[in-house]
Amino acid sequence: MTVQKSTWRSLVRSCFKAQVDQSTKPQKQVTKQTSFQRLSLPDLSNPSSQLSEDLSISLAGSNLHVFTLSELKLSTQNFSSSNFLGEGGFGPVHKGFIDDKVKPGFKAQPVAVKLLDLDGLQGHREWLTEVIFLGQLRNPHLVKLIGYCCEEEHRLLIYEYMPRGSLENQLFRRYSVSLPWSTRMKIALGAAKGLAFLHELDKPVIYRDFKASNILLDSDYTAKLSDFGLAKDGPEGSDTHVSTRVMGTQGYAAPEYIMTGHLTSMSDVYSFGVVLLELLTGRRSVDKNRPQREQNLAEWARPILNDPRKLCRIMDPRLEGQYSEAGARKAAALAYQCLSHRPKQRPTMNNVVKVLEPLKDFDDIPIGPFVYEVPSETGKEDAKECEPKNDVKKENGHRGQHHRRHQLRNSNRTQLSSPRSPTIHSEAVLRPSHRNGVQSPLHSRARGK
């Protein structure tokens, strides 16, 4: 503990000292991201290094802005409760607005300001990891990091504002219109493209914490990955994996990673399979309010995914039958592969993208009333098969007419209520991943707008 405390103080001092030096020392100009070799966390982990100076030079080509604490207080009205967006393991997030009155020459835009809670679950190392990865990587499906603040003990991150919030809030909130099928597939495809980009870099990145709360949505429901605090550089050369302590979120982490600490890109693929399953079923990855055998979504649903005759039993009832049967079968088969307990049998994220690409355009969506039959709790429902949609003539490219009759045998509809998933911070310790019941790191209050 003494060593960790000493390291923290050394980093704080070097960060503050170097920030003062920046005002009198011109920064090295780098015009393109590819003109410098990507920085890694070990490059800045030495307590004696000039942290902020290293960051400003190495990330010069990324166009990151260095903000002062006073500028961020001004942009968020001193972190007013009226601008509060949410809180996660990192700390509270506030909406802000930055223009040239706050920072001269800055293009006016709304932002999300994430403040590191020194007493929270994450710390300076996660803050630094986020700056290093998002400061150097640019992709339409990664949330844009605009800048950072490193002033005395204060650590803040400034992101583009994502008005639709997180996938978790959109998918699991009550008393709201459910996400349509095509939107769900668009989100799945966008998130898959983000992971594929990370995995295919010359120096691959393993995201390690892929989950619904870390997928943010813009106004058009374009998915962008956020929160790179647990990201890790992947294996290089002849290495097959990265050995590291187990960190992530219960219900999303791959079983082989939990058991051995061996991290590969296939660990991300498993986590993607869980999120795809959440999109199909409308259920959380872990839900302690459900019957024992249904609490872990992947374990419960995976055996059903490969059986088209029973697939409709686990589809999200909030879709009210308005989904493509052909698309659902293909998505379910893909989720089944991603959730394989044998990592080598999982598809690469590039192959996942190829499978998902056409699904958002499938329009064999039935038209007409729909009544969801709640399965009995006796286990006898396992023998039932889904009624085929005989009125749907074609699977792709044409909309069929759907007028099936449904018998209402049980008027009680399932309720989506769940405690939030705990985050895995070591092999033996499970802690809540979010505090105060708010999960989205950069989400909007105007949920449905």
Automatic annotation (TrEMBL):
Pfam families assigned to the protein according to its UniProt record, in alphabetical order: PK_Tyr_Ser-Thr
Segments of skewed composition (Polar residues): 410-424
Bias regions of kind Basic and acidic residues — which residues? 378-398
- List the SUPFAM superfamilies hit by this protein, alphabetically: Protein kinase-like (PK-like)
Q: Which SMART domains match?
A: S_TKc
Q: Where is the Protein kinase domain?
A: 79-371
Q: Does the keyword Nucleotide-binding apply?
A: yes
Give a GO biological-process term: defense response
| EC assignment | 2.7.11.1
Q: Which one of the record's GO molecular function terms can you name? A: protein serine/threonine kinase activity
Q: What ranges does the record give for the region Disordered, renumbered to this chain?
A: 376-449
A Gene Ontology term for the protein's cellular component? plasma membrane
Q: Where is the signal peptide?
A: none
Report the InterPro entries cross-referenced here: Kinase-like_dom_sf (IPR011009), Plant_Ser_Thr_Prot_Kinase (IPR050823), Prot_kinase_dom (IPR000719), Ser-Thr/Tyr_kinase_cat_dom (IPR001245), Ser/Thr_kinase_AS (IPR008271)
Provide the protein's localization: Cell membrane
Q: Mark out the compositionally biased spans (Basic residues).
A: 399-408
Keywords of this protein's UniProt record, alphabetized?
Answer: ATP-binding, Cell membrane, Kinase, Membrane, Nucleotide-binding, Plant defense, Serine/threonine-protein kinase, Transferase
Q: Which PANTHER family match?
A: OS01G0588500 PROTEIN-RELATED
**What is the official name of this protein in its record?**
non-specific serine/threonine protein kinase
